[in-house]
Amino acid sequence: MSALESKVAFISGGADGIGLAVVERFIQEGACVAVLDMNQEKLELLQAQYPDQICTVCGDVTSYEDNQKAVELALQRFGQLDTFIGNAAIFDYFASLSRIQPEQLASSFDRLFRVNVLGYMNGVKASLDALKASQGNIVLTVSNSGFYPGGGGVLYVTSKHAVVGLIKQLAYELAPEIRVNGVSPGATDTAMKSVEGVSRKSQPLNHIEGFHEKAAQAVPLKRIAAPADHASLYVLLASNEQSPMTTGCVIHSDGGWIAR
């Protein structure tokens, strides 16, 4: 039997990048998935590709109501919810505090933290009752930047450290009914967007000149990850059979960065 046979997941930021890879892997493992994302076109493609296993909501993770819609749709369509995966995030293009203009600091902070931290809280809050009923679990996407400086700017790195704290606190609060864990990807070939206004440059992360080469050389495995390289770890943590005693844990999927 597949690892997630007859399970149902709600994945935010699931129309592209790591989120899309996780959606596709969950479906391969037998799960049905509700996806919340802002990209209507990509959601329609997903719905057409997996009409029986997918339901979608075009919305904003910073809106509790949009997260609630996704949960309600999952329950209506599939009858249960077993896993919430928080994945949507935005970058700050390595902007240091000294580079951010004073008049931009508060608005840039609010925008990035609303997506990267509040977005996860909204998804968790909207999913709580259903996850308690199923004795389910939560998996949040972190980043190397949740543990080390230099993988982003001051806003992104601080937000990802906050996610590590969120995982630990929720694991404490929600036990024993719900397990809470994280996956910490290293540099990945994905077009993560940047918050506007903190830098004159705001192109997607994997469009930065030299990004792939520099990222590959920075880790012992000497290659940059594809989104699918991380997906099996989400399956592992979402499976109550494969990780029944794992909570408050973050698994690093970073090409050996942690071992440098």
From TrEMBL:
Domain of life assignment: Bacteria
SUPFAM superfamilies annotated for this entry?
Answer: NAD(P)-binding Rossmann-fold domains
Q: Name one GO molecular function term.
A: oxidoreductase activity, acting on NAD(P)H, oxygen as acceptor
Which Pfam families does the entry link to?
adh_short
For this protein, the parts annotated as crossing the membrane are none
Cross-referenced InterPro entries, in alphabetical order?
A: NAD(P)-bd_dom_sf, Sc_DH/Rdtase_CS, SDR_fam
Question: Which PROSITE patterns does the protein's record reference?
Answer: ADH_SHORT
For whether the record's keyword set contains Oxidoreductase, the answer is yes
Keyword vocabulary terms for this entry: Oxidoreductase
The UniProt entry, under Gene3D superfamilies, shows: NAD(P)-binding Rossmann-like Domain
Q: Which family does it belong to?
A: Belongs to the short-chain dehydrogenases/reductases (SDR) family.
In terms of PANTHER family, this protein maps to: BENZIL REDUCTASE, CHAIN DEHYDROGENASE, PUTATIVE (AFU_ORTHOLOGUE AFUA_4G08710)-RELATED
Name the record gives this protein: 3-(Cis-5,6-dihydroxycyclohexa-1, 3-dien-1-yl)propanoate dehydrogenase
